[in-house]
Hints:
Elements: H1 2-32, H2 36-54, H3 57-62, H4 64-71, H5 76-104, H6 106-130, H7 135-154, H8 156-167, H9 170-225, H10 234-242, H11 254-263
Helix pairs in contact: 1-9, 2-8, 2-9, 2-10, 4-5, 4-7, 5-6, 5-7, 6-7, 6-8, 6-9, 7-8, 8-9, 10-11
Amino acid sequence: MLVKLTRGWQKFKKPQENTAKYEENSVWHEMLNPTPGVRRMLITGCGIQIFQQITGIDATVYYSPTIFKGAGIKGNTQLLAATVGVGFTKTIFILVAIFLIDKVGRKPLLYISTIGMTVCLFSLGVTLSTMEDSKIGIVLAILCVCANVAFFSVGIGPICWVVSSEIFPLRLRAQASAFGAVGSRVSSGLVAMSFLSVTHAITVGGTFLVFAAISALSVAFVYKYVPETKGKSLEEIEMLFQNDSHWTEAEVEIGDMKHLMEKQ
């Protein structure tokens, strides 16, 4: 009896395993040979994850004592206080983002975040290059770093993970989100490891001017490639990316939905 049950279970289990294996292979085939719509999703999901890091947020937080020393702060107590202020600011504004994300929307917060970061990074670069060892320079450097962290935390910091989880259909979400996470971590590591070498080559101020230029590019990326996903279903979001036109401005109509469902 036990042998019969075991054989019956094996017969039942084998088709399920074959189906799961086929579905997994199908997903990877779609990821590695994407349709235009999936390609746009990957550009958006991976791109926003990479921009989150190459604007220098981890370098700003990790090396904030170095930045403040460059501005002219000498005492360890003052350095510690300024560094703690940066961490406190980051935590507070992440909480602000939680309350605003469904009220304001993803894209407006991304605009506020990336534009604000661009201004702060540019101001920090100019301050560190022209006002070293002055009281005004120290105050401005602290304000610029804290403001940059605040703009990051209220926008692109948390929202890139939200957008990445919303734009991919369920069949691709796990693998596609993993692609984005890998891009984020690799970018973070490269920025963190190269920061000190770059500052020695072009100064701390020059490094933040480079970050400001990259942040300005992130504004253009948000405009071009990131759609507003607030209040949209998975089908509506997928239709945005299937549209050949400028999908950040596309509207989903009932006829489009029927076309998408028929295509699937």
